Amino acid sequence: MKEFDKFLQLIEKLRSDEGCPWDREQTISSLKTDLIDEVKEVIEAIDKADYENLKVEIGDLIWVVALLTQIAKEDEMFEMKDVLQNVIQKIKHRHPHVFGGVKAVNSDEAKKLFYEAKLKEKEIGY
């Protein structure tokens, strides 16, 4: 998706020497408050059924997540492709009724299979 690549380049620019001093100063720890604030704003938009604002707040939440990931990349911990590969693998694993040989006839069965797979992840340290 071109927009996502542009977005990641924007975050990288903000953290560069030519970028924003505030963004450059941020650390993974310093962004905890911003992350919490953005989650609260997403929830508030959902509670109010304010879907136009929800679109804006989801964007703000993604911005904080991308900034956290850019910092991790700079610190040679991981980068966005690692995060995305991990979540793809995890979501596929947690949906055996979609990506495996198991079938769920209703949402209760799907939820049960999801949480069983999630529990197995914790057992194997996934």
Biggest β-sheet strands, sense, barrel: none
What is the CATH domain class of one domain? Mainly Alpha
Nearest-integer average pLDDT: 96
Q: What is the number of helices? A: 7
CATH architecture heading of one domain: Orthogonal Bundle
Helix content: over 70%
Strand content: under 5%
Which structural class is indicated by helix and strand composition? mainly alpha
Q: What is the CATH topology descriptor of one domain? A: Helix Hairpins
Question: In angstroms, what is the radius of gyration?
Answer: 18 Å
3D structure, described in words:
The chain is mostly helical. The protein has a domain at 2-77: Orthogonal Bundle (Helix Hairpins). The chain has helices at 2-15, 21-25, 32-47, 51-74, 80-93, 96-99, 107-124. It is globular, with a radius of gyration of 18 Å. It starts with a helix and ends with a helix.
